[in-house]
Write a structure and sequence with these properties.
The structure is a single chain. This protein is an alpha/beta fold. It is built from 15 helices and 13 strands. It folds into 2 domains: about 5-45 and about 290-390, Aspartate Aminotransferase, domain 1 (Alpha-Beta Complex), CATH 3.90.1150.10; about 65-285, Type I PLP-dependent aspartate aminotransferase-like (Major domain) (Aspartate Aminotransferase, domain 2, 3-Layer(aba) Sandwich), CATH 3.40.640. It has helices spanning about 5-10, 15-20, 50-60, 75-90, 105-115, 130-140, 155-160, 185-195, 240, 255-270, 275-285, 290-305, 310-315, 335-350, 380-390; strands at about 35, 100, 120-125, 140-145, 165-175, 200-205, 230-235, 250, 320-325, 325-330, 350, 355, 370-375. The chain is globular and about 55 Å long.
């Protein structure tokens, strides 16, 4: 007798990054042509030494950091997020409106758990962040795809046409994963007004906010005194301070919603990683200048992606979006991107994710697209990547 499997889990696509890593099995790369891995949007280096030293001090001298902590997170970290967010966005955010989570993916899962159940609907722009779609599928929640335009921006009027009595939320990611698009403040305001007028939640995932090319606040939503009736903001410390393995994220929402979130978090993890929280707090208080340097470097790489792109454009490639960690491209080949990506590993020693991982199966655009996560290759690496893509033939 076969052990039963939850049908919703069975129907959920396997983790895309893990799928892509398996394409490397049995492939040997030479020292003259090593693998260029642009598949995952995560830092590959350890946190800066000063942060590691501070974390070592916590390990040795803060006994309570090894115990269960508050379900909604370290009070000092919640206070620091509220203080810095209020200053950055020009709004009024209190510590009781901040929850710390085990990574931003858990923040999304917790938010959705308080909003929707099986049979409900959530609107996701496409190309989407695949883990968002996976979580909705696991919960039996219907995803209503909202295709972006050629500028990789979603249309609020189109979103309005997708709203039904079962719709519970609209989800936006800016700067966007996978396209890199930075959503204009006016666009976010239009989505906010749309969600507010229909009694929906607007979830804004700002995981990559530290690498936004704009120097001003990316939106003014927190300036609305009633923002917490509509807005749920998500964020990750993983990218800012290279804390991917420590799993620390945050959710900013109404105090009443966080009371519901607490139920989810207590059941799933009891509390966020204590050491990671101390690391995030120390980073927020001490690494602003270092983080500014990290942002400058990412912006230099973004500039290189754009400046060097004519080398690919003359071969029929198109740059659809670029920002934060990502370049989203259209390839010129008849081969669908899910097959092309495998061929690129074997022939060009390049590991990238196909657009088919970011759109519904019936959306033909994904077959022509690739996501390039360029945060871990410098300008020289970008030039080499372009040489290999330009030299690829079927």
């Amino acid at each position: 007798m076969t052990n039963p499997v939850n049908p919703a889990i069975a129907a959920t696509t396997p983790p895309p990054v893990m799928q892509a890593r398996r394409w490397l099995d049995g492939v040997t790369f030479s020292t003259t042509k090593p693998l260029i891995n642009v598949s995952q949007a995560a830092p590959v280096e350890a946190p800066p030494k000063a942060l590691r030293q501070a974390l070592a001090e916590v390990v040795l001298n803060t006994p309570e950091a090894h115990l269960y902590g508050p379900v909604l997170g370290l009070p000092q970290l919640r206070t620091e997020v509220a203080r810095q967010w209020s200053a950055a966005y020009g709004g009024n955010i209190t510590d009781t409106q901040v929850a710390i989570t085990s990574g931003c993916n858990q923040a999304f899962a917790a938010a959705i758990a308080t909003l929707a159940g099986a049979g409900d609907e959530v609107i996701l722009p496409t190309p989407w962040y695949f883990n968002h779609k996976m979580w909705l599928d696991m919960q039996g929640i219907t995803t209503r795809p909202l295709p972006c335009g050629t500028d990789m921006l979603p249309d609020p009027d189109h979103a309005a046409s997708l709203i039904t009595p079962r719709t519970r939320a609209i989800v936006l990611v800016t700067p966007n994963n996978p396209t890199g698009a930075e959503y204009p403040a006016e666009l976010l305001r239009r989505f906010y007004d749309l969600a507010q007028s229909h009694g929906l939640a607007l979830i804004v995932d700002e995981t990559y906010r530290d690498f936004d090319a704009r120097s001003d606040a990316p939106h003014d939503l927190f300036t609305d005194p009633h923002w917490s009736d509509t807005l749920i903001q998500l964020y990750s410390f993983s990218k800012a301070y290279r804390l991917t393995g420590h799993r620390v994220g945050t959710m900013v929402a109404s105090t009443s919603r966080l009371a519901e979130v607490e139920k989810f978090l207590d059941t799933v993890a009891i509390c966020p990683n204590q050491l990671g929280q101390h690391a995030a707090l120390w980073g927020m208080q001490n690494l602003s200048q270092w983080l500014a340097g990290e942002r400058d470097e990412i912006l230099k790489r973004r500039a290189a992606i754009k400046a060097d792109f004519p080398a690919l454009a003359k071969n029929g490639w198109k740059l659809l979006g670029c920002g934060a960690y990502f370049a989203y491209m259209e390839h010129p080949f008849e081969m669908p991107s899910n097959e092309l990506a495998k061929q690129l590993v074997r022939q060009s020693a390049v590991l990238a994710l196909p657009g088919t991982m970011f759109v519904p199966a019936e959306d033909a655009s994904g077959a022509r697209q690739l996501r390039i996560a360029f945060a871990n290759i410098d300008s020289t690496g970008i030039a080499t990547l372009y040489q290999r893509l330009a030299g690829f033939t079927i």
